[in-house]
């Protein structure tokens, strides 16, 4: 229903390719209206705290994102998650922080 605020729950796996523990960073969700493929990616609610990750480890956890304000105007949309959007963690590679794009269809 494009007239209501959406909640998206996703299981996210995050790998720490570094040697040091990564603490205190957040995950930010973004969405894009599917019917308007040229529409920009919009922030989807507030960032959520991520699970700390030891160097070389992978952590999988469930995260819940709440749309607020309303950014989805269609019953289908694209969704992605970006880690450490505020650059809290010192990294040698900043370009590998974005998840694959997920296509969501609201029933």
Describe the protein in words.
It is a single chain. The chain starts with 6 loop residues before the first strand and ends with a strand. It has strands at 7-15, 26-33, 42-43, 48-49, 58-66, 76-83, 102-105. Strands 2, 3, 4, 6 and 7 form a 5-stranded antiparallel beta sheet that branches. The protein contains no helices and 7 strands. The protein is an all-beta fold and 107 residues long. 0% of the residues lie in helices and 39% in strands.
Instruction: Give the overall form.
Output: elongated
Query: Which residue ranges are poorly predicted, with pLDDT under 50 across at least 5 consecutive positions?
Result: none
Mean pLDDT rating: 89
Q: Percent helix among the residues? A: under 10%
Note the gap between the termini.
7 Å
Task: Report strand %.
Answer: 35-45%
| Biggest sheet details | 5 strands, antiparallel
**How many strand elements?**
7
Written as H for each helix and E for each strand, in order along the chain, the element string is EEEEEEE
Class based on secondary structure composition and strand pairing: mainly beta
Radius of gyration: 15 Å
């Amino acid at each position: 229903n494009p007239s209501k605020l959406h909640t998206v729950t996703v299981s996210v796996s995050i790998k720490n390719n570094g040697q040091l523990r990564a603490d205190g960073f957040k995950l930010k969700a973004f969405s894009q209206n599917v019917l308007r493929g040229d529409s920009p990616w919009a922030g989807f609610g507030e960032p959520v705290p991520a699970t700390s990750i030891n160097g070389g480890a992978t952590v999988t956890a469930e995260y819940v994102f709440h749309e607020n304000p309303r950014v989805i105007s269609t019953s289908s949309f694209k969704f992605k998650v970006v880690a450490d959007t505020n650059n809290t963690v010192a990294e040698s590679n900043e370009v590998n922080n974005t998840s694959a794009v997920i296509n969501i269809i609201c029933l």
